[in-house]
């Protein structure tokens, strides 16, 4: 069982308005006021969770980013290879957009090719993967502008 009772006291302790020991004591007082003694007596232990430090949060973010990179590389490799093969087989033309989804079994990617597509500037796209950006720019605005001007061998990933 968990509760957020006393969380405001712990925040006050973190911001320096009171010591952490006083904050913990106040949180325990709130728990004793809120829960009946019969319930509290049945509990073996009350554990006060400690807030994460900036160092802990930074480590968590690093682990999350590290775990995303292999997935991104796999997707780029898989998508680029598949799209390249479609271009070689002339399944994708200058005015085509490729929409990518996952199959029902969630084991492979499914490609839908929309041909003779005219993109309006008002349209928004979640992710755009280019076959190459000759101008050296990489921000999303440039990708969308490039896509609206020319749709040659561009890949649009829509979730």
Automatic annotation (TrEMBL):
<keyword id="KW-0067">ATP-binding</keyword>
<dbReference type="InterPro" id="IPR050130">
    <property type="entry name" value="ClpA_ClpB"/>
</dbReference>
<protein>
    <submittedName>
        <fullName>Uncharacterized protein</fullName>
    </submittedName>
</protein>
<dbReference type="InterPro" id="IPR027417">
    <property type="entry name" value="P-loop_NTPase"/>
</dbReference>
<keyword id="KW-0547">Nucleotide-binding</keyword>
<dbReference type="GO" id="GO:0005524">
    <property type="term" value="F:ATP binding"/>
</dbReference>
């Amino acid at each position: 069982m968990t509760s957020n009772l006393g969380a405001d006291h712990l925040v006050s302790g973190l911001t320096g308005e009171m010591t952490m020991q006083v904050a913990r004591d106040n949180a325990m007082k709130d728990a004793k006021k809120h829960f009946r003694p019969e319930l509290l007596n049945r509990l073996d232990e009350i554990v006060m969770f400690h807030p994460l430090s900036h160092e802990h949060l930074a480590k968590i973010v690093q682990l999350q980013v590290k775990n995303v990179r292999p997935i991104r590389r796999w997707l780029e490799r898989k998508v680029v290879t598949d799209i390249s093969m479609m271009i070689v087989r002339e399944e994708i033309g200058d005015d085509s957009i490729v929409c990518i989804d996952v199959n029902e079994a969630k084991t492979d990617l499914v490609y839908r090719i929309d041909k003779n597509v005219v993109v309006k500037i008002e349209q928004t796209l979640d992710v755009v993967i280019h076959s190459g950006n000759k101008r050296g720019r990489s921000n999303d605005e440039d990708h969308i502008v490039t896509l609206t001007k020319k749709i040659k061998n561009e890949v649009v990933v829509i979730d």
